Amino acid sequence: MRQVRLSIVNSKLDVQEESAVILKRAKERIEKVGSDKPDIILLSEMFANFPCRCTYSEIRKSAQTIDGPITEEFSSLARKFHSYIAFGLLRQYGKSFYNSLVLLDRKGKPVWIYDKVTPMIDEIKKCHITPGKKPVVYKSDFGRIGGVICFDINFLELAEIYFRQETELILFSSAFPGGRLLDIWAIRYGFNIMGSTWLNNNRIIDCTGATVGRTSDILPCTTTVLNLNRRVVHMDYNISKIENMLNRYKGDVIVEDLRDEATCVITSLKNGLEVSDLIREFKITTLSDYFDKSRKVRKNNSGL
Q: Average model confidence (pLDDT) for the chain?
């Protein structure tokens, strides 16, 4: 069991609004979910310093460094609620500009930055946004975190990178809600996903692909409790191993049947009993190992 409280906040961006207005609204909503004692709070893409026009001059005017005013405002909130806070930022670093997701730790210190790997064409050509490099998972005190920003969600090669790093929670900071693209990432790779966007309909999705939390025009922020100590594995080669595991850890481990996808979910209900350790103990084949083996066998027998 590794319960985590996840909060998503919709700041409802209107590019005609002043940044100060949007920032004030976001802070008010963080204050609201703060009473839920969240482990992490997520806000949307470039929510408070989005340029009014996609031009180099507007980018220069709107961008902030990592130690700028927005980070300062959120650092105090992170300390107040003892919560990680992740937020979108048009970020300047040297002479370059990035569409970034910044993570503050529980003390309000910036500890991790994800730069949008696949900015849209106009972002690169007109706004001079620099694409980010290969992402690296962040090891927080509650789990392994990865980030994607908006258009990134279309590129499964990013999901594969996070998949190989055993990422448990994906932070989707965006302008658009993502829709079924988020479901694909969850179902195919077993990610838990929390999304915050410019629109009302934002979701928290567990590793089975089930929506377990959402926002709306009535409730613009919400908190959901998830057990991150869960892993999706394929049924092939694993059923007898899983039965042995259940017999040994009766009451501490459960398995959920996802037969339609030929997978199942191993969940630990005991504090300190990590599913990753169970997988090693019972030599359970992970999804990544099974898929890699399948690719290897195909290549050796087809010449592909």
A: 95
Band of pLDDT at residue 99, cut at 50, 70 and 90: very high
In the block, residue with structure tokens 């002043």:
18
C-alpha closest to that of 185 among 165, 215, 151, 158 = 158
Domain edges within the chain: 3-227, 230-302
Strand order in the sheet with 84-93: 110-115, 96-104, 84-93, 40-42, 3-9, 221-227
Strands of the sheet with 203-205, listed across from one edge: 138-139, 144-149, 169-173, 192-196, 203-205, 211-214
pLDDT at 14 over 80: no
Instruction: Determine how β-strand 253-258 pairs with β-strand 263-268.
Output: antiparallel
Query: What's the pLDDT at 53?
Result: 80
Residue 232: is its pLDDT beyond 80?
A: yes
Q: Can you read off the two tokens belonging to residue 148?
A: 């994607």
Instruction: Looking at the structure, give the CATH architecture of the domain made up of residues 3-227.
Output: 4-Layer Sandwich (3.60)
Encoding tokens for residue 112? 């991790």
Q: How many CB atoms lie within 10 A of CB 101?
A: 31
Give pTM, 2 decimals.
0.96
